[in-house]
Amino acid sequence: MQWLTGGLRGKSEQKKQSSCRELRIATSGSHSVRSNVEVLRVDGAGSFSQNGRVRAAVFVPTTSTTIQFHAEQQKKSAPCSGRASSVHALQMFSPEDTKTLLDDAKRIGSSIGWVDRGVSLPTQGATPLGPFREPSESLPRAVHVLVQNLTKESQDLVHRAIRERLLPFARRQYPHLTAAFDKQPYPRPGNLFIVRYSAASQRPGGRGLKLHKDETALTFNLCLSHEEEFTGGGTYFPAASSDVDGILIRPKGGYCLVHDGNIKHAGNEVRSGDRFILVGFYNADGRDRAGEDEFFGPAAREAQLRAQLPQPVQTIYFTTAVASQRGGGGPGEGGAAEANGEGAYRADAEYADPPPPARGSVGCGGCGAAAAVLGLSAVAIQGPVSPKEAGAPGASSSAGAAAAPGGGGPPGGANAGACGGGGGGRDEPPLSDTYWRSHSPPHKSQTRGSAPATCMPTWMVVLQGRWRPATALAK
Ligand SMILES: O=C(O)CCC(=O)C(=O)O
Ligand SMILES: [Fe+2]
């Protein structure tokens, strides 16, 4: 099995030089997911990297997934927003429907002509008409293939999926937009368009899209291409993880990413082939009124909501840990831990855990004590831990237990004391369960005497298997 360690940014800088090639990303299910680490070039991504080079954990959603990761540092005055740190992936189309759409888009695109995504600039400065620049006599033509240019059959497919899947999902996930959705139930047709990235393009804007914000209430980005039709690509989101610079989400055809348009992201360059995506911008400002009451009026919406079955969603807490090896050797090369099947762990015993966030508030979990973490890292721990280790004497928890996705709360409360102490006297959880707790360890030298300047999300730690006190882990 792979190893999970985490560490401070300082340590991780060293780690970046090392052979870390995999991460395990903690999930709400009983298993973490494995992710490759790739070095990408992302225009405009300067932090922690040079010349736009970033290290990204690559993730391909295969089920409805919420990815919760560290939001950008927010300004002091900015509201602390949990939603701002989430990206959702959901399947919108079957492979067959995706192919119908793609074939149609390709055909119509080649007759209308494709433009570089980076040229028609919805994301690079709003025009008076909003983020999407309308065609204009006086401007060079820079118009994407719109959904409304497609055949009636394709348009119906798209609108049905938006009405029946995307919007009910968005309403559930973004309750702060309820009033906006009631008033303006649908994205403006001009904000539903298809993008082609082509490895053959001579311009970077034709192969990818630099780091930007859409400045929309909601953005969705649906992959139309089959994964075998291109390499590279995917959407990159920076995340202040200690181990990588961000996450690259590479949805399969038919899967759609949904996110707050104020989260920074980039279109990773396509290295071979063509990548087609369908992008939708929803502005909750009354400008998107589509006038489609027949489909989107209150009665139609109620019928959709009734028809909507809850879908299982897994959550990924992206903060996490590098899979690296103990005792030398790269992943797959063996090592003590692989040999004995147990995880090796690193944690820094200097840190005290802040109170855990309530479940579901990870994005800004605890604007109080948990926010007192600046520039810090998470530790994720995974792997079976022997009962002896799990039962190490520990501090009792004063805070309530966070709910443990996948079953039960962490033993001894989510806040099991000062990184040590696994909560003595508790029942040991079964090995197959995943437990989690907040772990936002303020580094003493960084936080001593200074109030937190920003609201930071709370890191999550997942322990798969039994609890192991971090004090023990440090050894
Ligand atoms: O290529 C991507 O996945 C990102 C596209 C995007 O961000 C946009 O069109 O605004
Ligand atoms: Fe974008």
TrEMBL record:
Keyword Mitochondrion: no
Annotated PROSITE patterns: FE2OG_OXY
InterPro entries linked: Oxoglu/Fe-dep_dioxygenase_dom (IPR005123), Pro_4_hyd_alph (IPR006620)
Superkingdom per UniProt: Eukaryota
UniProtKB keywords: Dioxygenase, Iron, Metal-binding, Oxidoreductase
Low complexity bias: start-end ranges: 390-404
Requisite cofactors: L-ascorbate
Annotated SMART domains: P4Hc
Fe2OG dioxygenase domain boundaries: 185-284
Comp. bias intervals (Gly residues): 405-424
Location of the region described as Disordered in the Swiss-Prot/TrEMBL record: 387-452
GO MF, any single term: iron ion binding
Name by which UniProt lists this protein: Fe2OG dioxygenase domain-containing protein
